[in-house]
Each structure stands twice: as structure tokens, then as C-alpha cells.
Design a protein that fits this description.
Radius of gyration: 15 Å
Number of strands: 0
Structural class: mainly alpha
Number of helices: 5
Number of domains: 2
Shape: globular
Helix content: over 70%
Largest sheet: none
Order of helices and strands: HHHHH
Distance between the termini: 46 Å
Length: about 90
């Protein structure tokens, strides 16, 4: 198992605790904004998302507190972007 596969498995296990249930590849795909097939291939090690691998390498170079701050900011921005996209979709329908 590659380090990326191990990391993805750890993320999946931790997300299952957060969501209180077993998460399928379909669930992970929705959370990752990726296709179910892509997630299945990542988990098998058949392919890897290059950008994600690069980002993981960069984040691993940061102190845990700094990595957490970067991820918190990303999470906040993603939430704002998702809210804006939902509002735009509502206005166009």
C-alpha cells in the first residue's frame, strides 16, 4: 500500500467517525468533488491525483499548527464558495 493509499484510508476512517457511518466510494467521491471511479482507483492505488499528492507533500512540510490553519482557511473558503454557488444556481432556476 502506498503512502497516499494509507493516507486516503486514514481520511476515510476519520470521516466515518465524523459522519457516524461507513462511507462508500460514492460518499467519498461526493465529499472530494470527484467521480466514484476516480476515488475507487485512488483507493486501489491504480491512479493517484497528482495535485493532491503534491499538496500532501507540501502540507507534510508544515508544522501541525500551520497545516491546521491552512486547512481551516481552505474549509472556510470552500464553504463560502459552495454557498455562493448554491445561491447562483437558485437564481438561475
Amino acid at each position: 500500500m502506498t503512502s497516499l493509499q494509507e493516507t486516503l484510508t486514514q481520511v476515510q476512517l476519520r470521516l466515518q467517525v465524523v459522519h457516524g457511518r461507513k462511507l462508500t466510494h460514492k460518499d467519498l467521491a461526493k465529499l472530494a468533488h470527484a467521480s466514484e471511479r476516480a476515488v475507487a482507483e485512488w483507493m486501489r492505488g491504480a491512479t493517484s491525483p497528482l495535485a493532491m499528492t503534491a499538496l500532501m507533500h507540501l502540507l507534510s512540510q508544515l508544522a501541525p499548527k500551520d497545516a491546521e490553519e491552512v486547512l481551516d482557511r481552505w474549509r472556510q473558503k470552500a464553504h463560502v464558495d459552495a454557498s455562493a454557488n448554491a445561491a447562483t444556481a437558485t437564481e438561475t432556476h
